[in-house]
Amino acid sequence: MSLKQLIHKCINNETKAQSELYQLYSSKLFSICLKYSRNYAEAEDNLQDAFVTIFNKISQYKHKGSFEGWLKRIAVNTALQRYRNQGVFEIIDESKIEIVEVTIDDDFDISIDFLLQIIQELPDRYRLVFNLYVMDGYSHKDIADMLKITTGTSKSNLARARMILIEKIEAYKASLNSQSL
């Protein structure tokens, strides 16, 4: 069955088609939900909520652009909506922002698992902006619009996220150096 046929059957609320769509895209969308969630359980909740939205709004997909991209936007927006509703963002006066450039020694290898773990441990407002900007390539203006914050707040949160990550990496490096002594 073609994707267009599958979408049409989902529009008609055919549970077999909905199940097939879920099987096709749930792992990709779960990885997105995990990136924007505090933990695994919250990511599962966000995935479920995203699919509820997908099935409720699938008739709005106009077969223009990538269907997978449309699904991903819904997953991201579902996770972000949870944070907007919780008021995790504080608005920052743009005149008081200090942008800090951060560099990591190229000769130091860290595992992707460790990096993902420390990103996951960031406070919500920092993790969301970091993921949107660094991992997904959104501009500060786009992030500000998505999160209903100012571009200055987005820039400030990104700078703070980078500083926290550097501090954690430096602490990790120091613990490895002390173990090797």
Automatic annotation (TrEMBL):
InterPro entries given in the database record: RNA_pol_sigma-70-like, RNA_pol_sigma-70_dom, RNA_pol_sigma70_r2, RNA_pol_sigma70_r4_t2, RNA_pol_sigma_r2, RNA_pol_sigma_r3/r4-like, WH-like_DNA-bd_sf
Domain RNA polymerase sigma-70 region: 21-87
Pfam families in the record: Sigma70_r2 (PF04542), Sigma70_r4_2 (PF08281)
Residue stretches in coiled coil: none
SUPFAM superfamilies linked: Sigma2 domain of RNA polymerase sigma factors, Sigma3 and sigma4 domains of RNA polymerase sigma factors
Entry keywords, A to Z: Sigma factor, Transcription, Transcription regulation
Protein's UniProt keywords contain Transcription regulation: yes
Domain RNA polymerase sigma factor 70 region 4 type: 115-163
Family statement drawn from the similarity comment of this UniProt entry: Belongs to the sigma-70 factor family. ECF subfamily.
Protein name per Swiss-Prot or TrEMBL: RNA polymerase sigma factor
Organism whose genome encodes this protein: Corallibacter vietnamensis
Source lineage: Bacteria, Pseudomonadati, Bacteroidota, Flavobacteriia, Flavobacteriales
